[in-house]
């Protein structure tokens, strides 16, 4: 063995050592500090929501409720209500009624604890030309006239379509988002790594990212929350409409906040498996279409014309 | 042997079916609907007294009653009889100059007048074209006389707003909660602010 090769060997070995040391060091910095509270450690090692046992879930919920109650200075409940047996949620929106007043957008923000600043809206209302029909290339969502509806226009609110074949859940590298048995697509905010692949995969622009620390005023925080729904989100996770899971999964379950606020009654909600529900009536009796039907995402959000 | 017994039982079945068919087509029971050979319903003439009974409003099935909130009366206007009991009913169509001058009828005004919907004598009631008097809380029946398609949709919860529970008690609204009966077109609203354009936020 010549001197040069020996030297190279030594050098190589020391570089490896250096990298090892660097990795360990960076790892140590990333770990919660010595003085971090026990809850930070618990959160760090928390399992995926669907892998939690009953006892583990209780601990997690207890920790979250304590944390949120302290932060928002009120009693915050975090529900984990499971899907109701024999229920598949469906939503109907009457395009011949909607006037584009955006009441639904802000009712949703209030109910679901979205960040006010930076602003996150789960519902986007599109203004479309009557002459062009449902042509998204001519959609405008920054419209702000004195009064709506404006002549020659119709309005189309778009939110999560709760697809039966959701493209967003397929692309998640860590399975932090999935479709529940009642058809609601949910996100485990504690498992989401913020890669935003799901946002790229969603053809409806229905997923939103917390680019900054969510600005949620303490006084306006809705303390009735669900783990998979409207509980306060951290920075760096994706969120979306859950058909107001904290309301609709109860028995009796209230209508979603957007349905309840709509001044023209354009929004309809119900169980697709119940032949006597409103949603079934409108699908069977009205002109119905699904947005971007050709993508075969099979939305459970039905746009219809009651007239 | 087997095939013969099968054929025999088939014959028996056919005979039974024939008998049933004949008895159904020749029997003259009033309650049985009759069909011609192509399956169309044959209209059976009924005696005049039976027809009259069918058209009498007393014999119609009662309309389902929907629980609704109090009608949106103007302050202090109801009951109407608190003023109208001192007035002599005047059925003449005229321009009102003393009271209710704020009401501008913009609802098929060429063909309509107050007492087409409001009862002339007992002012606390509304009047259907059949002559039946109904309360203001049942006004959807009055509107439904012309707007039958909307009434049908409203009853199943498609037209109009519903609140409450999707799988429990639901709250209906009257037509007049959203549509002014004297000027029913839904009024334009000021939209809530548009979303912030990306890049213009203060961050």
Give structural notes:
The complex is a heterodimer of chains A (307) and B (203). Chain A is of the alpha+beta class and 307 residues long. Chain A has a single domain, classed as Alpha-Beta Plaits (2-Layer Sandwich), CATH 3.30.70. Chain A is built from nine helices and twelve strands. Chain A has helices at 3-30, 38-44, 54-72, 103-111, 167-171, 197-201, 245-248, 257-261, 278-285; strands at residues 77-79, 89-94, 124-129, 153-158, 177-179, 185-187, 208-209, 224-226, 238-239, 267-271, 287-289, 301-305. In chain A, the strands form five sheets. In chain A, strands 10-2-12-11 form a four-stranded mixed sheet. A two-stranded parallel sheet of chain A has the order 1-8. In chain B, 27% of the residues lie in helices and 6% in strands. Chain B has six helices and six strands, in the order αββααββααββα. In chain B, a hairpin with a 5-residue loop joins strand 3 and strand 4 (133-134). Chain B has helices spanning 2-26, 48-55, 81-84, 139-144, 148-155, 175-178; strands at 34-35, 41-42, 126-127, 133-134, 163-164, 170-171. Among the domains of chain B are: 2-44, no CATH class; 81-178, no CATH class. Chain B has 203 residues and is mostly helical. Classes of the chains: A alpha+beta (307), B mainly alpha (203). The A-B interface holds A 84, 87, 94, 99-103, 105-106, 117-119, 121, 124, 141-149, 212, 248, 251-255, 259-260, 262-265, 268-271, 277-278, 281-282, 285-286, 306 and B 153, 156-169, 173, 178, 186, 188-197, 201-203.
């Amino acid at each position: 063995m010549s001197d040069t090769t020996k030297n190279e060997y030594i050098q190589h070995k020391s570089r490896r050592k250096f990298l090892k040391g660097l990795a360990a060091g960076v790892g140590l910095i990333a770990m919660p500090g010595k003085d971090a509270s026990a809850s930070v450690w618990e959160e760090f090692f928390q399992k995926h929501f669907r892998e939690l046992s009953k006892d583990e879930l209780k601990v997690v919920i207890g920790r979250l409720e304590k944390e949120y109650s302290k932060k928002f200075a009120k009693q915050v409940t975090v529900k984990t209500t499971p899907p109701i047996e024999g229920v598949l949620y469906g939503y109907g929106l009457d395009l011949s009624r909607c006037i584009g007043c955006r009441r639904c957008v802000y009712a949703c923000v209030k109910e679901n604890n979205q960040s006010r600043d930076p602003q996150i809206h789960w519902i986007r209302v599109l203004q479309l030309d009557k002459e062009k029909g449902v042509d998204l290339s001519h959609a405008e969502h920054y419209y702000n006239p004195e009064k709506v509806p404006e002549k020659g226009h119709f309005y189309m609110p778009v939110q999560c379509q709760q697809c039966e074949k959701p493209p967003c859940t397929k692309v998640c590298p860590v399975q932090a988002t999935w479709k529940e048995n009642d058809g609601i697509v949910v996100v485990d905010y504690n498992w989401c790594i913020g890669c935003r692949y799901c946002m790229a995969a969603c053809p409806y622009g229905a997923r939103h990212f917390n680019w900054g620390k969510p600005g949620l005023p303490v006084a306006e925080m809705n303390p009735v929350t669900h783990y998979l729904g409207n509980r306060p989100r951290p920075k760096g996770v994706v969120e979306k409409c859950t058909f107001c899971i904290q309301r609709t999964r109860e028995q009796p379950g209230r209508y979603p906040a957007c349905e309840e606020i709509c001044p023209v009654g354009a929004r309809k909600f119900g169980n697709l498996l119940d032949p006597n529900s409103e949603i079934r009536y409108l699908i069977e009796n009205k002109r119905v279409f699904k947005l971007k039907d050709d993508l075969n995402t099979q939305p459970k959000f039905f746009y219809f014309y009651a007239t | 042997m087997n095939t013969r017994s099968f054929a025999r039982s088939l014959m028996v079945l056919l005979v039974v079916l024939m008998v049933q068919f004949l008895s159904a087509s020749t029997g003259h029971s009033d309650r049985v609907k009759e069909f011609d050979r192509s399956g169309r319903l044959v209209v059976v003439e009924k005696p005049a007294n039976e027809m009259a009974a069918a058209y009498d409003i007393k014999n119609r099935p009662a309309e389902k009653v929907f629980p609704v909130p109090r009608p949106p009366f103007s302050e202090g206007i109801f009951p109407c009889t608190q003023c109208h009991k001192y007035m002599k009913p005047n059925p003449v169509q005229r321009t009102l100059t003393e009271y209710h001058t704020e009401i501008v009828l913009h609802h098929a005004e060429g063909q309509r007048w107050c007492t087409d919907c409001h009862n002339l004598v007992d002012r606390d009631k509304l009047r259907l074209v059949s002559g039946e008097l109904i309360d203001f809380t049942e006004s959807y029946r009055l509107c439904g006389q012309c707007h039958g398609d909307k009434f049908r949709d409203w009853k199943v919860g498609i037209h109009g707003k519903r609140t409450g529970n999707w799988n429990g008690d639901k709250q209906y609204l009257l037509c007049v909660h959203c549509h002014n009966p004297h000027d029913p077109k839904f009024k334009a609203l000021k939209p809530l602010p548009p979303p912030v354009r990306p890049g213009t936020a203060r961050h």
